[in-house]
Amino acid sequence: MSAVEPIIDIVRPEPSLFWQRLRRNRAAIASAAILVAVTALALLAPFFEALLGIDAVRVDLFNQYATPDFTHWLGTDEAGRDVFVRLLYGGRISLLVGLVAAIGAAVIGTSIGLFAGYHGGRLDTLLMRTTDGVISLPLLPLLIVLAAIDLSKVGVPDSIVNSEMASLYRIVFIIAIVGWTTVARLVRAATLSVRTREFVRAAEAMGSGSTTIMLRHILPNVVSPIIVATTLSIGSVILLESVLSFLGLGIQPPVPSWGNMLTNAQELVTRAPALAVWPGAVIFVTVMAFNFLGDGLQDALDPRSMRR
Amino acid sequence: MLPFLTRRIAGMTIVLTVMSFVVFILIGLMPGDPIDIMIASNPDLTPADGERLKRLHGLDLPLWERYANWLGGLVSGDFGFSRAYNRPVLDILLPRLGNTVMLLGLSSLAAIAIAIPLGVIAATRPQSPVDSAINLFCFAGISVPPFWLALVFIMFFAVTLGWLPAGGMGAPDIGLFGRLEFLVLPVATLTIASLAGYTRFARAAMIEVLRQDYIRTARAKGLGPGRTVFGHGLRNAMLPLTTIIALDFGSLFSGALITETMFGYLGMGKLIYDSILGNDFNLALVGLLLATLVVLIGNFLADMAYAVLDPRISFRALEAA
């Protein structure tokens, strides 16, 4: 194998080979199916709401803790709201936060990794020391401080601060600015190996600027680690969002997210244990699916990393 | 050894200083400032009194000067007072620090003690059903929301079975042995969170090591499989694992914050969380710095363990690295 590989592009295998390898990984395929199903259900939330004749935000104190029936498939919560439909709406938020924050973190991490890997030298040392420093910090307490900051004190316009979606923008932003480290390290490592290749040398000899070389010649060749790391980080972002929302610092009610649906669950464990089970189980399954998919993508994109 | 220590301590000081500045700015951006809170809680104070109080406490100064004053106080041993407890912050933080260090210590020991055998079992039987089961367990451990795991433990072991307390620390005079039952669930929750990651790394490191020539040599000269795996394999696989554990101390502390909050365990994580939410600025600030220091010391100890585990690496080599 090693006799042939260096001539073909190792970092970007043939698309057909990629699909063949991915198809053989049953866990990854099952995970992809689960994620498609979860996403579809979340997108169809208004449809289910109409179908079952439910209003997901309406508080109905005469119908607290209802047991599951044909209208309320998973029963109702402490405010008489339907748990199933709220899970679907919560899924929209949690998946959206996961996707957008992971992509944001990937963009930051890719820029830093490309820069550090291509330019090298003292800049590289500084950027990588910073990355190592951020990785080793206790991040959750810092995130809690960031989540508690008064946005109007940092000059965010009132129209955004007071909007219902302010907590969503904020959580995406703070997760992205601390979550870039993994991507940065991977992209830097890949950049270091790509930048010595002939086509990069050729581009340099032809007088291309460093930005052009990084974006046109290096970036396309480091896509695999970016895809893998981003997929894996969607899972960890969803976990982080759920923790912050659970602690009351993430997505603010009445907007549901999988994390804030669990906020009251702890006091209610004796009265309504089901309320504590469902959102957590959905987070668990979704995050696990992203992790299995990321792992499968890694094996399919980079045969050298295959589990031996 | 000495220059190595000096360099590490210098590095830690830089990280702590940068952290203190960042956190100082961030805490200043939290809603409400201490004087507003004083005025709100005391109807006799007029806005003019508020201005005078601000001057008295130096809060009308520019950010740089306020930071310099605060840092100067810190260096001379004045860590400030907690607003909520009305006591010096260190008096509150230090007992909590002990509880957190106990939780962190027990959990990382348990995680390492379980992860290494699991990793070795999986690595010596690649692709077997046992390996797949361990792999599945690892993915589950990485993917489970830690606060939800705590909730499930509370529901099952405290509510349904009634075997263990749902939280708290017990009476103060309960003694170390009496506190054990209050430690089981928090330690178990925190252990599972880090155990899964450690096991994956232990497996990967073992597989890498078992492919080396010296393992084949050991087998060829007639050494039994057990002694080969543990004497020659594990000893070498421990090195990359130590690095991972060192890097993991930060997230371990984050896990401790969640665990302590869930179980009402009186540790530093819960204290930091409560003080941020309760606008107790001094306590939050010093608490965060102390947490960072704990994590840095954890990293440092893991690096020391690396040098002890690897006879090829002396402290002189660490200096050069």
Summarize the structure.
With about 300 residues, chain A is mainly α.
Distinctive features:
heterodimer; A: 308 residues; mainly alpha; MetI-like fold; 13 helices; 65% helix; 0% strand; B: 321 residues; 78% helix
List the helices and strands and how they pair.
The complex is a heterodimer of chains A (308) and B (321).
Chain A: H1 15-24, H2 26-43, H3 45-52, H4 83-119, H5 121-136, H6 139-148, H7 158-161, H8 166-178, H9 181-194, H10 198-205, H11 210-218, H12 223-246, H13 273-301
Chain B: H1 2-28, H2 34-41, H3 47-56, H4 63-75, H5 89-124, H6 129-143, H7 146-160, H8 175-210, H9 213-220, H10 225-247, H11 249-263, H12 268-277, H13 281-309, H14 315-320
Helix pairs in contact in B: 1-13, 2-3, 5-6, 5-8, 5-11, 5-13, 6-8, 7-8, 7-11, 8-10, 8-11, 9-10, 10-13, 11-12, 12-13
> Biggest sheet of chain A, in brief?
none
Alpha-carbon Rg of chain B, integer: 24 Å
Largest sheet of chain B: none
CATH architecture of chain A, by name, is Orthogonal Bundle
Low-confidence stretches of chain A: 1-9
- CATH class category of chain A: Mainly Alpha
Supply the number of helical segments of chain B: 14
By DSSP, the count of extended strands of chain B is: 0
How much helical structure, as a percent, in the residues of chain A? 55-70%
Q: Regions of chain B with pLDDT < 50 over 5+ consecutive residues?
A: none
* Span between termini of chain B: 13 Å
Query: What series of H and E elements makes up the topology of chain B?
Result: HHHHHHHHHHHHHH
Summarize the helix and strand pattern of chain A as letters.
HHHHHHHHHHHHH
Structure description:
The complex is a heterodimer of chains A (308) and B (321). Chain A has 308 residues and is mostly helical. Chain A has one domain: MetI-like (MetI-like fold), CATH 1.10.3720.10. In chain A, 65% of the residues lie in helices and 0% in strands. Chain A has helices at residues 15-24, 26-43, 45-52, 83-119, 121-136, 139-148, 158-161, 166-178, 181-194, 198-205, 210-218, 223-246, 273-301. In chain A, helix 3 runs antiparallel to helix 4 and helix 6 (139-148) runs antiparallel to helix 8 (166-178). The longest helix of chain A is centred in the N-terminal third of the chain and has 37 residues, at 83-119. The two termini of chain A are 16 Å apart. Chain B is mostly helical and 321 residues long. Chain B is built from 14 helices and no strands. In chain B, helix 5 packs parallel to helix 13 (281-309) and helix 8 packs across helix 10. The mean pLDDT of chain B is 82. The interface between A and B is large, with 45 and 51 residues.
